TrEMBL record:
Protein known as: beta-N-acetylhexosaminidase
Top-rank lineage group of the source organism: Bacteria
InterPro entries on file: Beta_hexosaminidase_sua/sub, GH, Glyco_hydro_20_cat, Hex-like_dom2, HEX_bac_N
Naturally occurring in which organism (per UniProt): Saccharomonospora xinjiangensis XJ-54
EC number: 3.2.1.52
Catalytic activity as recorded in UniProt: Hydrolysis of terminal non-reducing N-acetyl-D-hexosamine residues in N-acetyl-beta-D-hexosaminides
Cellular component GO terms held in the UniProt record: membrane
Protein's GO biological process: carbohydrate metabolic process; glycosaminoglycan metabolic process
GO molecular function (one): beta-N-acetylhexosaminidase activity
Source species taxonomy: Bacteria, Bacillati, Actinomycetota, Actinomycetes, Pseudonocardiales
Annotated family: Belongs to the glycosyl hydrolase 20 family.
Length: 517
């Protein structure tokens, strides 16, 4: 980040806890430009209004969410009212032409003694600005009951916009089901770090977690008792619950990307509906962690009726532009069958108005270039991915040895797996998505996503322990310009998130690499 003066904490500090006030530079992900003004600071009072762009229902809604997040700790009423003039008093959220560089999600914040003014081209930008503002207030702002803190915001200007359009997190609710409330808590945390896509891995060998009316046993059996790894992850989302999650996410400018994994990772469906198997015999349900043993029957017509029903119903529930059809680890599908299958199924995704996503194996089917490949490999060379990029495909970077939140931090981590190695915070931070894989340059990268597979994760505490702090690192990779990223500065800023996470009861991993406050 560009910093004009030195409101930052002493960079030579080795991490001893200090109760330094929050500085304008203490933001994760690092903003593009920060110009602290040591002379100025705004202090919230019981009379502070939140003034939003007149006649913009969306800006008003962003104001309401901001008020909701600041009321419990301050105890202030923080009324959300139309901004009658552009004079900066109180907190103002204004839609303005702030220029093409800031784009759809960029924003500008100015903090003076009189107020905080956030300006953006769209309400999405205002929302991003409000997430920055929350981090500029003292950590006590996260308390859920009233505190008598001086609610100051450091003076100066921040100008900010994202590096990548797609900034994602994936949650696997198939291996263990996670409830709507748990998913919403995760969404709350994602929004703070300006993540704008939530990929839900809805189906797998061990369970089917989204209601499909035309194939009801998928969930009544495949999401019922005994499903999930070790048979302890039962549950599924009704259509209503799924839509409610989609709406909750949308209010926080997060787009849900549903994944129906196929043709592999389908034992749950195959064991529920015998007719989907080539031999017509249902295999037993499975609750172990093996992968790569199941496949839909490529040669049967009913397979495509099933797939079309599922894609139609899920697409109807999903306002976002993407639908992920998996395609990973289809080890028992021959390459010819895989290609046949994808060449039939990808057009179905498009027929229902969605842009297909697949794990990177999908490029083997040489699909239309609109198909987005999600790279989960651990190598920095992948000729088939580079070829796909040369043909015009875009890529989501999720290298397993950098972004997989289910990998253990070290051999002592009680949860998680280690097939892609141990991933400490610094490992997850120090790489460049724009040149990580040979032949996959910045322009080919649509964004970055951190998947969280849940074979070993049952509760929100488990999710939090694996996701934090690494998710904040990946969020910074996806949002902040490469030049603004520096491990030494990042670990300091990250350390200052600790009291905020503690206040919210987030069970994060206290990595020894980070000077936690
Ligand atoms: C590989 S990554 C998988 C998942 C597992 C994960 C565990 C990918 C596309 N497939 O089925 O859950 O490893 O880390």
């Amino acid at each position: 980040m560009t910093t004009a003066t030195s409101a930052t904490a002493d960079p030579s500090s080795t991490g001893a806890a200090t109760s330094a006030e929050t500085a304008l530079t203490d933001v994760v992900p690092a903003p593009v430009e920060v110009f602290p003004d040591a002379e100025a600071e705004y202090r919230l009072t019981p009379w502070t209004p939140i003034r939003t762009e007149p006649r913009s229902a969306e800006a008003h809604k962003v104001g309401l969410l901001l008020a909701e997040s600041l009321r419990p700790a301050t105890g202030y009423p923080l009324p959300v009212v139309p901004a009658r003039s552009h004079k900066p008093s109180g907190i103002s959220l204004l839609l303005d032409n702030v220029g093409d560089t800031l784009g759809r999600e960029g924003y500008r914040i100015e903090v003076t003694d009189d107020g905080v003014t956030i300006r953006a081209n769209t309400a999405a930008g205002l929302f991003a600005g409000t997430q920055t503002l929350r981090q500029l207030l003292p950590p006590d702002i996260e308390a859920n009951a009233r505190r008598t803190t001086a609610w100051t915001v450091p003076g100066g200007t921040i100008i900010d916009h994202p590096r990548f359009a797609y900034r994602g997190a994936m949650l696997d609710i198939a291996r263990h089901f996670h409830t709507p409330d748990e998913i919403k808590s995760y969404i709350d945390e994602l929004a703070r770090f300006k993540i704008n896509h939530l990929h839900l891995h809805l189906t797998d060998d061990q369970g089917w977690r989204i209601e499909i009316e035309s194939w009801p046993r998928l969930t009544t059996v495949g999401g019922g008792p005994g499903t999930g790894v070790d048979g302890v992850g039962a549950g599924f989302l009704t259509k209503e619950q799924y839509s409610d999650i989609v709406a909750y996410a949308a209010d926080r400018y997060i787009t849900v990307v549903p994944e129906i994994d196929m043709p592999g990772h389908t034992n749950s469906a195959l064991s529920t509906y015998a007719e989907l198997n080539c031999d017509g015999i249902a295999p037993p349900p499975r609750t172990d962690m093996a992968v790569g043993y199941s496949s839909l029957c490529i040669g049967k017509e009913i397979t495509y009726e099933f797939v079309e029903d599922v894609i139609r119903e899920v697409s109807e529930l999903t306002p976002g532009p993407y639908l992920h059809i998996g395609g990973d680890e289809a080890h028992v599908t021959t390459p010819e069958d895989y290609r046949l299958f994808m060449r039939r199924v990808l057009p179905i995704v498009e027929k229902y108005g969605k842009r297909p996503f697949g794990w990177n194996e999908i490029v083997r089917a040489e699909p239309a270039t609109a198909t987005v490949a999600q790279y989960w490999g651990t190598s920095t060379d992948n000729a088939e991915l580079a070829d796909a990029v040369a043909r015009g495909h875009r890529v989501i970077m999720s290298p397993a040895n950098k972004t997989y939140l289910d990998m253990k931090y070290n051999p002592d981590t009680p949860l998680g797996l280690s097939w892609a190695g141990y991933i400490e915070v610094r490992d997850s931070y120090e790489w460049n998505p724009g040149d990580h894989v040979t032949g996959v340059g910045e322009d080919a990268v649509l964004g970055v996503e951190a998947p969280l597979w849940s074979e070993t994760l049952r509760s929100s505490d488990h999710i939090e322990y694996m996701a934090f702090p690494r998710l904040a690192a990946v969020a910074e990779l996806a949002w902040s310009p490469q030049e603004a990223r520096d491990w030494t500065a990042f670990r300091e800023r990250l350390g200052k998130q600790a009291p905020r996470w503690e206040e919210r009861g987030i069970d994060f991993y206290r990595s020894p690499e980070v000077p936690w406050q």
